[in-house]
Automatic annotation (TrEMBL):
Organism ancestry: Bacteria, Bacillati, Actinomycetota, Actinomycetes, Streptosporangiales
Cofactor remark: Binds 1 potassium ion per subunit.
Domain (YjeF C-terminal) ranges: 217-483
Name this polypeptide is given: Bifunctional NAD(P)H-hydrate repair enzyme
TM ranges: none
GO molecular function: ADP-dependent NAD(P)H-hydrate dehydratase activity; ATP binding; metal ion binding; NAD(P)HX epimerase activity
Length: 488
């Protein structure tokens, strides 16, 4: 399990640890980890040109001490002093080691341009608001330079506690983060700007509280995934009911059923009108299909979880099917058109059994009234708020998928690829998550494991090239195989 913390959590832990150690110890630990990471990236330290972007706080102090270590190994290190003041002891050590300074004007810009490696020590967890000048300009100069940038603690311009970026931010090849991962390194847009993330142990572990955010690893998912045992049969493994698709949107039914079948459901029951029924029958002879003359679940059979919404439409038929599904006593996953209906009629969600909703930002916007862009900029907060407000588990889709449930750390998933941004992949995800619900996982585990598997299946299906949704469903078994073989 990867854990991450807000700036306030980190600061409180640092405070406790610092009280037990001689002054400056933590910064020395941070700087030596940072210098080692820079040296590894440079390959050959002696003679290389390193440019430090140094802000006014301790983030700049880390950069200066690391710069001193690199200078002692023969690197030509220049520091662009960007703040109104500079970490005094750090600067002294840096100058003593042979480092040189450049102003934040033309000389600084040249130092950035000619560097082999740039170290971003502008701001860390002490940042507030968008970068101010001259930091803003330096961040942009670093992004335009040929050399890679190593960010100290967080890329400057990324909010450490949310991943939010307002204005300019440094695009790092590597972020060397001190003591513990910051939430903003796991959540886009921050995660995308952080590059690789390397954690330097400064002894903070015992002082950290419960994490703000966690990310499942492959081993975590493998441990959570249900597997059939000798005494399994199709009913005991879990039956998924799918209410998706319409005469207009037949594909959604095929994709959701496919996702459920390939993610290990014991059986999939599909109920819908004539057109999607014909398509589901043609694609998935394994599914047990009921053709409906009217919107009713009578005679469809028992299931352990329902998936409702993809391609269902938003008319009276769809509304009635959704209401009947939600009136059941088993877990329900609501996606797509189901969410549009719930946005119109929130009372539908008032039920005892668990609900997992799987909106993208546009659908969440309909549910909560927040703007789509605002949601994408701060997905953690919006997913958390929606989970608390609606009393359900929220899986917010997008470049980082986040799963929020009241009173639990948000789970974030970054296994996906931008190639997944294509029609129908969300329908597959709903089927995969439905299969995990039917196999007995709770909404929180089912949502986060499904996001992981779906992202991995996307990577397998894509391999760097376009994918299509049916290909993602087809790759789900390979994703499961990869996880379980790695962890056995
Ligand atoms: N406290 C500790 O013991 C340790 C701190 N460490 C480092 O210290 C950092 C935190 O240091 P600080 O608390 O001094 O804070 P920072 O260095 O992150 O930033 C604070 C400074 O930046 C300025 N600033 C804030 N927002 C700005 C903006 N938007 N534009 C321009 N300037 C802005 C402030 O005026 C202040 O001078 C960590 O991120 C980490 O790099 C590490 O050395 C580990 C140990
Ligand atoms: N930029 C991206 N990077 C990674 N995954 C993405 C990105 N954009 C979308 N996705 C994923 O692709 C899927 C799209 O789902 P959705 O928006 O519901 O599409 P549809 O309704 O067409 O099926 C989600 O799983 C989402 O997390
Ligand atoms: K930084």
């Amino acid at each position: 399990m990867r854990t991450a913390y807000t700036a306030d959590q980190i600061r409180a832990a640092e405070h406790e640890l610092m009280a037990r150690l001689p002054e400056g110890t933590l910064m020395q630990r941070a700087a030596s980890g940072l210098a080692a990471a820079c040296a590894a990236m440079l390959g050959k330290v002696y003679g290389s040109r390193v440019t430090l972007l140094v802000g006014s706080g301790d983030n700049g102090g880390d950069a200066l001490y690391a710069g001193a270590l690199l200078a002692r190994r023969g690197a030509r290190v220049e520091a662009v002093l960007a703040g109104g003041r500079t970490h005094e002891a750090g600067l002294e050590a840096f100058l003593l080691a042979g480092g040189r300074t450049a102003g934040d004007g033309a000389a600084g810009a040249e130092a950035v341009e000619r560097a082999d490696l740039i170290v971003d020590g502008l701001v860390g967890i002490g940042a507030s608001g968008p970068l101010r000048e001259p930091y803003w300009g330096l961040a942009r100069a670093a992004n335009a330079a040929a050399a890679p940038t190593v960010a100290v603690d967080v890329p400057s311009g990324v909010d450490a506690s949310s991943g939010r970026v307002e204005g300019a931010a440094v695009e790092a090849a590597l972020t060397v983060t001190m003591g513990a991962r910051k939430t903003g390194l796991l959540v886009d847009p921050g995660a995308a700007l952080a590059g690789e993330v390397e954690l330097v142990d400064i002894g903070l572990g015992p002082y950290l509280p419960d994490p703000d955010v966690v990310g499942l690893t492959g081993a975590d998912v493998a441990a959570l995934l249900p597997r059939p045992a000798a005494e399994s049969d199709k009913y005991r493994r879990g039956v998924v009911g799918v209410v998706a698709g319409s005469d207009q949107y037949t594909g959604a039914a095929v994709l959701a059923v496919g996702g459920a079948l390939l993610a290990g459901a014991g059986m999939v029951r599909y109920a819908g009108p004539g057109e999607p029924v014909a398509q589901v029958r043609a694609h998935w002879p394994e599914a047990v299909v009921t053709e409906l003359e009217r919107p009713s679940l009578d005679g469809v059979g028992r299931v352990q979880a329902w998936v409702v919404g993809p391609g269902l439409g938003t008319g009276d038929w769809a509304r009635e099917m959704l209401a009947q599904v939600l009136a059941s006593d088993v877990p329900v996953l609501v996606d797509a058109d189901g969410l549009t209906l719930v946005a119109r009629e929130r009372d539908l969600l008032g039920r005892e059994a668990p609900v997992l909703v799987t909106p993208h930002a546009g659908e969440l916007s309909r549910l909560t009234g927040a703007g789509r862009e605002e949601i994408e900029a701060d997905r953690l907060r919006h997913a958390r708020d929606a989970a608390a407000d609606l009393g359900v588990t929220v899986l917010l889709k997008g470049s980082t998928t986040v799963v929020a449930e009241p009173d639990r750390p948000v789970r974030v998933n970054g296994t996906g690829t931008a190639w997944l941004a294509t029609g129908g992949t969300g329908d597959v995800l709903s089927g995969v998550a439905g299969a995990l619900l039917a196999q007995g996982l709770g909404c929180y585990d089912a949502g986060s494991c499904a996001a992981y598997l779906h992202g991995l299946a996307g990577r397998i299906a894509s391999s760097g090239a376009p994918l299509h949704a049916a290909g993602v469903a087809a790759a789900v078994p390979a994703a499961i195989r990869e996880l379980t073989s790695r962890s056995s």
